[in-house]
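dumping these here so i dont lose them again. two proteins, back to back, each one seq then structure tokens. dont judge the mess
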Amino acid sequence: MQFHGFTTSTPGPSHQGRNDGPSALDWRRDSTFRIEGLVCRHCARRAVETLRGLPGVLAAAVRLSRETASVRYDERVTHEREIVLAMALRGYWLSPASGAPPAERAWFDAPRLGVVLALVGNLVALSLWKPARVAPKLVWIELVFALLLILVAAPPLMTRAAAFARKGIVSSELVALGAALVALMVGLSGFVLGNGTTVMTPNFLARFGDRPDATILVALETAGAIVGFAFLGHYVHQAFARRAFADIDRAVRGRYARVRRVTPREGDVVVPCAVLAPGDRIRLVAGEVAPLDMRLDVPARVAVPGGTIVDRASGQMLARGERLASPSVTGRIEHLGGMESSAAVDAVVQNTAARIEHDALRGEGGRFESVAALALFVAAIWFALFSCIVHALLLRGPIQPGVLLAGVAVLAGASSAGFVVGLPLARIIAVMRARSAGVVIKDAAALETLAGVDFAYFDKTGTLTAGAPYVVRLSWLRSAEPSMLSDVAALEAAATHPVGRAIARHLAAICVEPAVLDEPPVVRPNGVFGMVRGVLVEVSAAEPGESVPHDIRADTSVVCFRREGQTMGIFELSDPVRLDALQALRAMWHRGIACRILSGDSAASTIALGHRLGVPAAGNMGVADKARAVRALREAGGRVLHVSDGRPETARVIAADVIVAVAPNALPDSVAAPIVLRDPSLHSLVWLVDLARALRSRTRLLLTFALAYNAVIVPLCATGFVSPIAAAALSFGALLLICLLASRLMTNPRRWYVHDKLVRHPPAPFPTSTHGHSSAGKRQEFANSSRQ
């Protein structure tokens, strides 16, 4: 990522969001902060020098005008919390700059917005008045309003246009400023050459038919209106984007709220919450809300949510969000309440939003969108040239004001907002809504692909089950050898699979000491093996036909431990099924998605779970077997969703259309999936499908509206039926409507809840053969079976 002043926090290694395996880790991180305490350029230079002198900081930049600081640092050496604390000790308060995508950091203050609204309103009112004769005083009034509007509204647009131009992007701000400049030149030329000052008219201009008339007013009105409406359109877009980031804003403000930390030497020191650690002592005064869970040092009166006043004794907990009713108390931070995890998730979501906007501006948001935006730009240029030529022939002079204003009308009326504003805004809103529902989306393209899936493959452990297996029974098939358990404990000591961790916990509970491994163990898809005391020891799932006790329950899994290939005993494990698994699978079927369970556990336990949930199931399947099943279905024309626990080895091999990981307690960067469910409930998966389909519907509506609008407006502007100021107003109205259409995703779809009417039919059977049938045919087959 290029380092510049508009970057957000960019967590995770360089292979984030990819499924092609790990690559070289990149420990550089970029963060943008709001900085307080700057009063002059000398302060800004000193802040830069301070940042660059901190350990681990690789580069830093401070913008005095926007009060932002951009920092690139090595996360192996330092952290955002350490940077914030170090700057606070030097008199600079830092907080993450969040609330809008990177290109929307340039914020507009209320006075500027009010002045622009007043000036645009005056220009529109004057444009509706059509005097029979152009009075000099009216021209002066129009000129003053236009120049004031340009002076107030143009600087932010010029800043954005220059930033995009340096990246090789022709932005809508640049087109608006160019059209406004042409209109202003036409108005000034008419003002100089008219109003009784014909002695200043050069002869060579007179030959081309330059005769000023009432179009002077139109030109001046157009120049101001184009800049004013472009400014208002940019502000409207920013307002909707900030509304989408509202939840993250509240979380960031809570993490960086200032509290009084009590230190032995310095007394009370005001620091942000983000730099606190468990065990730190903080002080609260009457009326303040506890930012974190803290254990009181002295008794206190507390107002709990709801207004009730309760007494808390010394040593009791003051929960986060409770308000202090006593004069002053101190307490120790008990825990951070998931602050670090929440900050990491917010940073990943911010990075996804930044990538969405960047791809849209670079024309990489989608093939059709890129082609449509480029075609619109080329068409607007050609229509502008065409209108200038036609009007020049009709008005008998190529320098007539009406000729240039016709071309300006085309450039002002053509709107690419549907492609570069509406679609990215809809995707950003969808990503933010998913974040508030406990779903982290690292790749917006995966969410759009999810809308069209036909089949869903579910892993068993940690996905349909709670992911917390426990050992029900330990049985010996031969004579008991306690030393064998020490060998098993050594193999499972560093296990990452939930089953391996369950076995390790069980052996530790019965006081089994792990032996010493001769060499590192080898992990396979169905188990682990290694050399212990010169003997090959293996712990893996029971193979088909292997001798196991006859009283094994059908809903449990069997793991065998072997020595030199001979089975010595078994662990019988149980993993409870998620309470909402049955309802979620049936809800997926009602949405036209057929589900199937693929698991590496024993066939008996997997089939029992499938029978309980009403879906086909297959056990004893390794990662390669799952990959072959997914590939066969994709080759037959199906679009496949794979739901697993997000382990990297699984994501690299199984090439499904969409991979969703159910990882409630994991950081998003550690999960090899573009979509991560941090909510353990599978209801979130069903709601996510609804969100993806709502996004697809909204995307189609925005594209249809953008194409229809430009197909109608551009020819009308070129032929002169729409005036330039009306074209600018229509372009702003189109942008406003596009933002309103995209913002519907903030409330639609609603959070999904299970109702009895959704599960009254049994699930449709999963097709045993997928060859010779199209995806649409399978969907119709499921629909027909549901009506029977």
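---- next one ----
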Amino acid sequence: MKRSVVSVREGSPILVEHLADVQIGAATRFGTSSVSGRDAVILSVQKQPNANTLDLSNRIDAVIEELEPLLPADVRIDNHVFRQADFIEVSIHNVIEALRDGAILVAIILLLFLANVRTTLISLVAIPLSLIVAVLAMYWLGLTINTMTLGGMAIAVGVLVDDAIIDVENVFRRLRENRVLPDDQKRPTLRVILDASNEIRQPMVIATFIIIAVFAPLFFMSGIEGRLLLPLGFAFVISVFASLFVALTVVPALSYYLLPKMKQHTAERETWLVRTLKSWYRPTLEWALKHGSTVILATALLIVGALAVYSRLGSSFLPEFNEGSATIIAITPPGTSLQESSDIGEFVERKLMSHPAVLSVARRTGRGELDEHVFGSNQTELEVRLSQEGYHKEKVFDELRDLLSDVPGTVISIGQPLSHRIDHMLSGTQAALAVKVFGGNLYELRQIAQQIKAEMETVDGLVDVAVEPQVDVPQLRIEMDRDAMALYGVQVADLAENIETAFNGKVVGQVLEGQIPFDLVVRFPEDSRVNENVIASSLFATPAGPQVPLNELAKVYKSSGPNSISRENVSRKIVVQANIAGRDLGSAVEEVREKVLNNVRMPDGYFVSYGGQFESAEAASRIVFLLSLLSIGAILVLLYLEFRTFRDALLVMVNLPLALIGGVFAIFFTSGIVSIAALVGFVTLFGIAARNGILMIAHFHDLIDNGKVPVRDAIIRGSLERMNPILMTALCAGLALLPLALGGGQPGKEIQTPMAIVILGGLLTSTALNMVVIPALYWRFGARTKQLN
């Protein structure tokens, strides 16, 4: 390279070594890294959006296994520093366990009510058949089995047997009634099964379509919540639709082949449990019909109480995940050298390794040369792998915050990998709450931000409160003198390019050593790049001919300026960020808003906005609310098509507020926080709860219109006859969710748990009240219509 010819003057070659020093130098270092206190090279693999994480991880493991024998003896590859597949595998295992346990509980409920293995098996066959259809549908559409699709199936398990239960229970009861008739009045078995199936077919179909209709909001949600909940909703809807198909085809066929062959004593009597429940239910029902006003008033008071409790519940965006790892961001003041920042990062790393729950720590200070994160040398990111054996996540995070509270001059934020990335996408920060201050003057913004930070530090539940690091840093400024440049014919672009090449360097080629390429960089010697006077006297060629020093073309001087300037919607901004611990996001934000409004003075032209998860939660809640109104309208239309009268349709709709009571109190006695997942649980609950009212009122109509039974007798008889299927379907749908409801905090169940709690609590109240309130309302309002007709 030194002997390369640049040009020839007067017959003599001018070589590179005549013009420059040629030497091997170190590339510019942008960052450092280590794993558990030992220097390391950290390689991050980012998957494509449609790639399967588990499959990709397994293929990477296979490649690493092939590489390891070729590595030097002192080099080791650790592929578990941060591995998203580990969280996914644990999550899928937990959800599959919930799916299995839910199916077992469904089988137990059916055996208790039916006390018959054949009827139980006929009902249970809907579960595997429906799930197989759902899996095949997802396969045809290119979807994958993940925690969300499995969660949708787990939530649907109890609902999948509902149609089958209703059908087989009605067939079983009609066969039992037919058996006790005199021989001359008995009907053929096939006719009994056909009539029994047709009797409940229309209300069963309408009820199932209502359940599907209420999931419509999920298919119109956007953003993070839409990406998470859409697969869940799809799996749920496909499974429920498949269960309807099974109930309409497979269940009647199995009933024909299995039920008529039962032993005589098995088929003639109801089970002990059903007889006992009916003996309790009948006097309760008669009392409710006699004291309808009292029942209606008490129910109204419960609904008002539930609404009052709901208004006092906290709110959040999505439930917190339990990923088994933590992402910790440590930021030193801007301008901190890479070496100093690396030393502080190593200090933080050692402190983290001292905690017994920490298995490993991967540290990255600054950034890699081609890193997608544009981190400065003052920022350190640590991926901490945590043990989940005997440790509670929130307690560990609190202990880590205490452990790192004495790190000098460093702003530390603690989160988790998924939540960290979600926060970054939502607000551009690494925290759940971002208070953005907008205005024209950067120094005024800094003062306002410090005031807001002081107010936020007084709010309970806010942790990791920090202002976006903005300080004035030393700068060497070069201001071009356009008049002087015009005298020498120098263009602004040419001078700027020459300055960049001289002082920052420019890659002009590559040098190959074997098969390894190295960049060939041209720039001034180091002693000419660090001294202000030398820089000012550096010579630059001009089109006019002579070389002139830089200070004749531009003004070179030392100054200071902001390390960064952030803008959003063309306005300058500065961000105060915080995480939430031990409190709901909604109430914390409301308190921050109140304190900022009352205690922080905003000059004219300056304003504050609140971003992050809170902003997304508000937007998603509005979408769910508006789309839920459309779903309720669709339910009302379907009910009208079933009953041909809005009076009866509205009577069935009473199940919605009845379900609200239990759902609200279930949240109140558990987390006390309404998240987007809980709202979706309410929407799902409304569809499931409406089924009970449809079955009951449709049977009232059948007895009055076809059986010519007096209205009051029809209400009592119809309620008693529908008690069994209503209780079975409600208990199956509710108790199947018990493994999810009790699995709060377990990986994979974070989003499904709030949904399960809402649905389980709502089904308890809607079922219990439906069996008392709906008959009382029908006797008070619906029966009069029938009598007039």
